[in-house]
Specification:
The complex is a heterodimer of chains A (345) and B (479). Chain A has 345 residues and is mainly α. Chain A has 3 domains: 93 residues, Orthogonal Bundle (Arc Repressor Mutant, subunit A); 134 residues, no CATH class; 99 residues, no CATH class. In chain A, 61% of the residues lie in helices and 2% in strands. Chain A has a 3-stranded antiparallel beta sheet. In chain A, helix 7 packs across helix 12. The longest helix of chain A is centred in the middle third of the chain and has 21 residues. Chain B has 2 domains: 195 residues, P-loop containing nucleotide triphosphate hydrolases (Rossmann fold, 3-Layer(aba) Sandwich); 183 residues, P-loop containing nucleotide triphosphate hydrolases (Rossmann fold), CATH 3.40.50. Chain B has a 7-stranded parallel beta sheet, with helices on both faces. In chain B, helix 13 links the parallel strand 10 and strand 11. The chains are: A mainly alpha (345), B alpha/beta (479). Chain B: GO terms for molecular function: 3'-5' DNA helicase activity; ATP binding; DNA binding; four-way junction helicase activity; hydrolase activity.
Chain lengths: 345, 479
């Protein structure tokens, strides 16, 4: 059940329900990203793309009814002691994704669709089948795969694909490799549905869904490490250099040339507040953000005094800062929080 | 184009020597520049008509189709037949791909769209810029049955057709009473259209009804039918949940290979189930009515309705997925007292009282946003300058019509006489004399053996194959 996975996203301290929801569905606002950072859930960003709020709330409600989640205040949930025990139990029995951080940097969903059709095309081609029903009729996906097949079509293509698949699949357990191959579509094999795989492997449909998404992520990671083959070619346009949005990355590049935020705003034709948002996003998503360029000793001193020994970053309140150092606005406080999270990690 | 040349093309492109009834006439009318309303029985190969005409007429063929899953099936089928220049514009296609498709319209041969999509200015403008070979309204009865109170954009098709420069138009359906035919030509403003009408009757489908006392008996009868009668089978339900529950129950209590199919599944799972069924890897599909509209499986032997269809026309459409190979097949409707309530509930969803309609008109006048589905329907009428009383009359008439249709359906179930006669007279056709292989009269048994429809040998579930050998099967490597 989806609820089983949802339980894994809460902790014994309260977490903001909406923020957890937004992390799952991939809403990339600074406040969501910051929540992902402080909850150590950035790897889950966009992992349940498009999940409707009602489904999320209904799942959480079943956890509340089971006595595993409780709401210490409106809009927040935390694990009960029974919930904590259940979470430990589920983490042992339920499949846990290992490669979901790929969602941040790669359009995994699109690659999954491209890969599914490309492998079908090659499978049918290997059997010299010309008449078949394509697994997707999405014209965009079809056009990309058509172009790709035209480029790679050769006497060696089938062997190259099989070698790549074999090498990748041997890195997996037999169960995972079987699920991967059985879900493929190809010549005379439509492939097994999630429901059918769930029955065969004695897992829930949601677990199969999680496994298949994770397999896509692992497949993506493997192809990035083996970038010369035909399938890596299909993947390449979908990989960003990092998970920062293009616009925020441009702002960050300008910042590396000049630390003056007003100047950046002028050069990028952006509002100062947008420049700040971009820098916060970048600070959250990359590991080597040069915090010292912005957080000068004058800014850091009152903040260190307030929070120096406090490690629970998400519990710090901005009104404490306003009382102690009224000249510091929210941006500096948030940037300082991010720095402390990154350094603690 | 000469008759000989047309037959030559049929052989060359599709490998057939003969057209199915009605196909040739419609094609030759279209080639002569005539708009055509074609009422051809289920399984006639209606899509071949526009494919064929599209091959001969220069320009784009725009096919207006009611359901996303149907459009996807139609595109996949054309792809299967080697037609590459074909696309569907649906709400599931992302914005960029939609833009790309519109830019590439001049290179396309077939475009599938819903009425709602066609009306969007960007889509309409793009289509206006290209030469149209043919405008096809598939499942044209939707104009009459869905237009008034469910999808009013079906009522706007006549205007859209004009905006497209009134291209050559083909209206296709398998089921249309005289009233529905009149609605179609009136709404599409094609009074001069040739009407090519063939009987809806499918004599190779034996018609049966099982009157049962309750849900438990229905389930048991379903299982008994599926294990004793020939498959492949489709079982229709009116809810997604039921398709899943009963499919699971059948998997656990029989040896049959069963899957559920409904609009809630991912496109990938829908594809896989359809293909498994097409290639004989499944015996039974438990489906909502979304399944099978674009299905090209010729050897479906059995169609069972676990819940009532909404109308006799829908029933004819749905059982029409059986026996497309011309072989004997069977349609069974399971009925327990009170089942009609589900249909009534469904009908009530599109009901609107005079007060609701009046209130929504005020909303429209105050330029308030559209809050719900009913308002979205009513919005169409307000934008087209209908008065409140006209709309009240339209909704009233539609509800009365739906009640009449339910009564006709119940008459089919409860009749002591020939069921085929009831169906045929519903569509204004002369009835054929009853014979043994026609239908099950009240109280009689279904003569499975006489029909040659007893179940074959039990299939076994395939054992799991290792991923390595599966991979070898998928990708054939020359050694």
């Amino acid at each position: 059940m989806f609820a089983d996975y949802l339980l894994g996203l809460f902790a014994t301290e309260p977490r903001r329900a909406k923020a957890v929801y937004n992390v799952c569905r991939g809403r990339r606002t600074v406040s969501t990203l910051f929540a992902g950072l402080t909850y150590q859930e950035l790897a889950w960003l966009d992992s349940w793309h498009g999940v409707p709020l009602e489904k999320f709330e209904a799942a959480a409600q079943t956890l509340v009814e089971a006595g595993w989640l409780t709401a210490p205040q409106a809009g927040y949930w935390q694990l009960t002691p029974a919930g904590e025990a259940q979470q430990v139990k589920l983490k042992k029995t339920l499949y846990q994704p290992v490669a979901w951080q790929q969602f941040q940097q790669v359009d995994v969903r699109r690659f999954t669709a491209l890969s599914q059709l490309a492998l079908q095309v090659v499978s049918e081609y290997s059997h010299q089948a010309k008449r078949y029903y394509p697994v997707t009729t999405d014209p965009g996906i079809q056009a990309v795969v058509k172009g790709w097949f035209r480029r790679w079509r050769s006497a060696d293509l089938v062997a190259m694909i099989v070698t790549e698949l074999r090498e990748f699949l041997t890195t997996l357990s037999t169960e995972l490799a079987t699920i991967f191959v059985q879900s493929l579509t190809g010549y005379e094999q439509p492939g097994q549905t999630d429901q059918q795989l769930a029955e065969q492997f004695n897992r829930s449909v949601v677990e199969i869904l999680v496994i298949r998404k994770d397999l896509s992520c692992q497949w993506v990671a493997w192809l990035q490490a083996h970038p010369d083959g035909p399938l890596a070619d299909l993947l390449r346009p979908l990989v960003k250099i990092n998970s920062v949005s293009t616009s925020a990355w441009q702002t960050y590049q300008t910042f590396l040339q000049t630390p003056d935020l007003d100047q950046i705003a002028g050069r990028r034709h952006l509002k100062l507040s947008t420049v700040r948002e971009h820098l916060l996003e970048t600070a959250i998503l990359i590991t080597d953000f040069p915090f010292d360029r912005l957080l000068t000793p004058t800014i850091v001193a009152p903040l260190d005094q307030l929070f120096g020994s406090e490690t629970a970053v998400s519990t710090w309140r901005f009104d404490q800062v306003q009382a102690a150092a009224p000249i510091l606005d929210f941006f500096w406080f948030r940037l300082y929080q991010i720095m402390r999270c990154q350094r603690a990690a | 184009m000469q008759r000989d040349e047309i037959y030559q093309l049929l052989k060359q492109k599709y490998g057939f020597d003969e057209f199915r009834p009605g196909q040739y006439q419609v094609i030759s009318d279209l080639l002569a520049g005539q708009d055509v309303l074609a009422v051809l029985p289920t399984g006639t190969g209606k899509s071949l008509i526009y494919q064929f005409a599209g091959t001969l007429l220069p320009g784009l063929v725009v096919v207006i189709s009611p359901l996303i899953s149907l459009m996807q099936d139609q595109v996949a089928h054309l792809n299967y037949q080697g037609e590459k220049q074909v696309a569907a514009l649906t709400s599931q296609v992302d914005f960029q791909t939609r833009q790309l498709t519109l830019r590439q319209l001049p290179q396309l041969k077939f475009l599938f769209v819903s009425p709602e999509m066609l009306k969007q200015p960007a889509v309409l403008t793009a289509i206006q810029r290209v030469k149209l070979a043919l405008l096809v309204v598939d499942e044209a009865h939707c104009i009459s049955t869905w237009g008034p109170d469910f999808r009013p954009d079906y009522l706007g098709l006549g205007q859209l057709k004009q905006q497209l420069g009134s291209p050559l138009t083909l209206m296709l359906t398998a089921t249309a009473t005289a009233q529905v035919r009149q609605d179609i030509v009136q709404q599409l403003q094609v009074p001069q259209a040739q009407q090519v009408i063939y009987s809806m009757n499918r004599p190779n489908i034996y018609l049966a009804v099982a009157n049962l006392s309750n849900e438990a008996d229905k389930r048991e009868r379903l299982r008994q039918l599926l294990t004793t009668a020939a498959t492949p089978a489709i079982v229709y339900f009116s809810s997604k949940k039921q398709t899943e529950l009963i499919a699971e129950w059948l998997r656990s209590t029989t040896n049959l290979r069963v899957a559920a199919y409904h609009a809630g599944l991912s496109a990938e799972d829908r594809f896989k189930i359809q293909q498994q069924y097409m290639t004989g890897q499944l015996d039974v599909i438990c489906a909502t009515s979304a399944f099978g509209m674009g299905l090209n499986k010729a050897d479906v032997r059995l169609v069972i309705h676990y819940h009532l269809p909404t109308t006799l026309a829908d029933y004819v459409q749905e059982i029409g997925r059986a026996g497309r190979d011309g072989q004997q097949s069977l349609a069974v409707l399971l009925y327990a007292p009170g089942d009609e309530q589900l249909v009534r509930n469904l009908n009530e969803l599109t009901m609107a009282s005079a007060n609701q309609i009046q209130a929504d008109y005020q909303r429209f006048q105050q330029q308030q946003p559209v809050p719900d589905e009913l308002a979205a329907v009513l919005q169409f009428y307000w934008e087209h300058h209908y008065s409140v009383s006209q709309v009240v009359d339209i909704f009233d008439a539609r509800q009365r019509q739906k009640q009449r249709e339910l009564q006709q359906l119940l008459a089919y179930i409860q009749t002591a006489d020939c069921r085929r006669a009831i169906l045929m007279s519903h569509f204004g056709e002369a009835t054929v004399p009853h014979r043994e292989a026609c239908c099950q009269l009240a109280g009689g048994a279904i003569p499975l053996a006489e029909l040659g429809l007893t179940a074959g040998s039990v299939t076994t579930t395939p054992t799991t194959t290792s991923w390595k050998s599966l991979l070898d099967q998928l990708f054939l490597q020359k050694i």
